[in-house]
Design goal:
The complex is a heterodimer of chains A (214) and B (248). Chain A has 214 residues and is mainly alpha-helical. Chain A has 10 helices and no strands. Chain A starts with a helix and ends with a helix. In chain B, 38% of the residues lie in helices and 24% in strands. Chain B is built from 9 helices and 10 strands. The longest helix of chain B is centred in the last third of the chain and has 16 residues, at 175-190. Classes of the chains: A mainly alpha (214), B alpha/beta (248).
Chain lengths: 214, 248
């Protein structure tokens, strides 16, 4: 650990990058994931098909391939964006597919009768989804979404492969200087574990607060 | 009773579930303030009939109108129509993530555009009326079945419906809770609410119905005043149904 403390400034800066990527991509993936789920259970066949294709595409293509594609192929197509925002967008749209799968399993927990009651009261489809279905679906999948968020933190490390200087990339650089791989990478591992632990605890706390009394 | 001033009117309604012909050319007219009780053996189509009136079950052919207006097929017009038709389900179907008060105020606020303050004031009056005012801040799962069903009635009434549909409202209740729900329904009937009630509670039919409809195999077999129906059923099928439900 001492080696990492010797490079504390750089390591903390890189940890900050990792956390910023996680927070923005995390919020983005939850928002996109919920929208994809809504499309997936909507009454419009085209929307349902697009949402299904979205989930299938991102679940079946490796994240690293997407990152490489976005960082090296998009500029070739004339779309030039800074490295870190590009990686954040790719992480968000990728994890959104997993969020969508989790939320969809939550949608299935909402009793059909409640939807009938909503329709009988005069709610339109969108209101039924927004007021009745999505709030209950999300409450049912807090822990699964927490797991997706933990996976997201781990996946931010892949951004190192396309040149983003986040935690893994930075400790790799420290190792090139110090040549103490066990201490350095174990230290980085402990930091990732600590972040995952915090997310897991937060998910548990949120779940207890929003759980539906049954 | 002509169809011009009918509150609910069904004409030549047909409905199939696959090969099963569940509603066979059913016609029914319900006058304003009338209380119609539909009885019949299970599988007779009575619940399906009830659910066609706000199009929770689409029909294959026939016409349904409410307060003189044809029931729209879908979209915003159908949603507006449904807002005027209160429905109470066998399994209550309260929104599990909302308090009782929120259950009652949600539709007035979001569908009718009533302010939260006004909606809550009206909801409390309704909840007091059905006897569960003190439960307003609790969640559905914290209430007994009878209390949940009374909350569901209050939720439907909050939309100030023109007609109330009850689809076996007491069938999922423990016996000791049936009367608390029926009492609310009887008082509602006495206040002049137009009601269509699918039930196995023959006592309620006797007490509150203006007319009893007996259905079997997707058809209306017999309709009459409660006393005439229960004391002197005309058809053999009604006689055998009544003897099976009353002789135990």
């Amino acid at each position: 650990m001492n080696v990492l403390i010797d490079h504390l400034g750089d390591v903390l800066g890189a940890l900050g990058t990792t956390l910023v990527m996680f927070l923005i991509a995390g919020v983005g993936s939850i928002v996109i994931g919920v929208l994809v789920t809504v499309a997936r259970v909507s009454p419009i066949p085209l929307l349902r098909w697009v949402a299904f294709a979205y989930v299938q595409f991102f679940i079946n293509v490796p994240l690293l391939a997407l990152l490489v594609l976005a960082v090296f192929a998009l500029p070739d197509a004339g779309i030039i964006a800074p490295l870190e925002p590009t990686a954040i967008v790719v992480l968000a749209v990728y994890e959104a597919a997993y969020v969508a799968e989790a939320v969809r399993s939550g949608v299935n927990t909402v009793a059909v009768g409640q939807l009938e009651a909503a329709r009988a009261l005069g709610f339109n489809q969108l209101q039924s989804l927004r007021l009745i279905v999505v709030p209950q679906a999300l409450r049912a999948v807090v822990q699964p979404i927490g797991n997706v968020m933990i996976a997201l933190v781990m996946n931010t490390a892949l951004a190192a492969a396309v040149g983003v200087v986040e935690l893994t990339s930075e400790v790799n650089k420290v190792n090139l200087i110090e040549a103490q791989p066990i201490a350095i990478f174990a230290g980085a591992g402990v930091i990732y574990m600590a972040i995952a632990l915090v997310i897991g605890l937060a998910a548990g706390w949120v779940e207890r607060r929003v759980a539906i009394v049954r | 009773m002509n169809s011009v001033n009918a509150m609910v009117s069904l004409a030549g309604v047909n409905k199939h579930f696959g090969d099963l012909h569940v509603l066979k050319d059913v016609s029914l007219t319900v006058a304003p303030q009338e209380v119609v009780v539909i009885v019949g053996p299970s599988g007779s189509g009575k619940s399906t009939l009830c659910r066609t009136i706000n199009r929770l079950e689409p029909i294959d052919s026939g016409d349904i109108s409410i307060d003189g207006e044809a029931l729209p097929v879908e979209g915003a017009a159908l949603a507006r129509h449904r807002a005027d038709v209160g429905m109470v389900f066998q399994s209550f179907n309260l929104f599990a993530h909302k308090t009782i008060l929120e259950n009652v105020t949600l539709a007035p606020r979001k569908v009718r555009g009533v302010s939260r303050k006004d909606a809550e004031a009206e909801a409390m009056v309704l909840l007091e009326r059905v006897g569960i005012g003190e439960k307003a801040r609790q969640f559905p799962a914290e209430l007994s079945g009878g209390q949940q069903q009374r909350a569901a009635i209050a939720r439907a009434l909050a939309m100030k419906p023109k007609v109330m549909l009850f689809d076996e409202p007491t069938s999922a209740l423990d016996p000791e809770m049936v009367s608390e729900v029926l009492d609310v329904m009887v008082s509602l009937a006495a206040e002049g609410m137009t009601m269509i009630v699918v039930t196995h509670e023959m006592g309620f039919a006797r007490r509150a119905a203006d007319r009893v409809i007996f259905m079997d195999h997707g058809q209306i077999v017999e309709e009459n005043t409660p006393s005439a129906f229960f004391d002197a059923p005309q058809s053999e099928r009604a006689r055998s149904f009544l003897s099976s439900v009353l002789d135990h």
